[in-house]
Amino acid sequence: MPRGKVVRGADGWLFLHRDTNRVMGQQSGEIRLDANQLTQWRVLLDTRHAWLERQVAAYVFLIAPNAASIYPEMLPDGFQSSAHRPVHQLLDHLSQHGSPARTIYPEAELLALKQEDAPYARNETHWTDPGAFRAYERLLDELAPGVDLRRLSRDDLDVARDTNHGDLGRQVEPPVEAEHVYTHVREPRARLVSDNRVRNTGRRVVYESDAADGAECLVYGDSFAMRVLQFLAESFRRLTFVHMANLDRELVQQLQPDVVVKIMNERFLIAVPVDDPAKTQAELEAERLAAGEVLPPQQQPPRPGRALSLSL
């Protein structure tokens, strides 16, 4: 992330600013979805829902809130968070038109979590492990009781705290450290099966667990998905994650998952994805490999989600 895209808020908080998605413009309500974009989103989600239903797969769209949406009181002077941002426009539009697509925006859950633990760190755009776990719980609430799976509880987790520069803290001088909260599954049963080590778009990671029942899950989306994987990997017999914006229908037909989950950060909603025509995960992977966009070899088998680097 180039320097100059960080703004300092209250009490040492850092927020993303001047990015290509104009996140602070969305946050203030200045940037909004127009009628055409709202229709495009509804058609896209309804089409995904209908197609996946024919594949006998449940579909859930999980929208991860911006840190500023959960900590508006920490925004810099002169910035004010709107109560009706593009994400709320979309949710209202889907509801008004009776869309069957299941869409989750766990804003209320993460606001409530602030009373117990930090859903975001002061110097990071991504949610913390506790924030991701609350989103995991909300996601499983949406899937129950139609999907047979293993559900983790908070008693299954160990909590650790450490200081970290975070993706925003590394972008200022001097770098800013802050406390980050991490969780680990106390008795993990999921194991890493494969990881193509492609950097960002085109990444493909597969986990399997003999503790979960027969359901299989495909997760696709951006870097916000990565902190959720350590939990979802324990809940499904097989979990595949692909880092990409569009739904790869060829991959769905190949894997035949019981559940398909899209995880996307709130700030990306102003760009409506296109599923057809679009590149497949295999095509994206090949492009990345050819360009040398590959992460270093993994030194030891990671716990699910721990070694999946986060990026903006």
Descriptive notes:
- The chain is α/β, with parallel strands linked by helices and 312 residues long.
- It has one domain.
- 30% of the residues lie in helices and 20% in strands.
- It has a seven-stranded mixed sheet with strand order 4-3-11-9-10-8-7, sandwiched between helices.
- β9, α8 and β10 form a beta-alpha-beta unit.
- α2 packs across α4 and α6 crosses α8.
- The radius of gyration is 19 Å and the shape is globular.
Order of helices and strands: EEHHEHHEHHEHEEEEHEHEH
**Helical coverage, percent range:** 25-40%
Q: How many beta strands in the DSSP annotation?
A: 11
Total domains, how many? 1
Q: What order do the helices and strands come in, and which of them pair?
A:
Elements lengths: L5 E3 L5 E3 L6 H6 L6 H20 L3 E7 L2 H4 L15 H11 L5 E3 L2 H7 L15 H15 L13 E8 L1 H4 L8 E8 L4 E6 L8 E6 L6 E6 L4 H10 L2 E6 L5 H7 L3 E7 L15 H10 L22
Parallel strand pairs: 3-4, 3-11, 9-10, 9-11
Antiparallel strand pairs: 1-2, 5-6, 7-8, 8-10
Helix pairs in contact: 2-4, 6-8
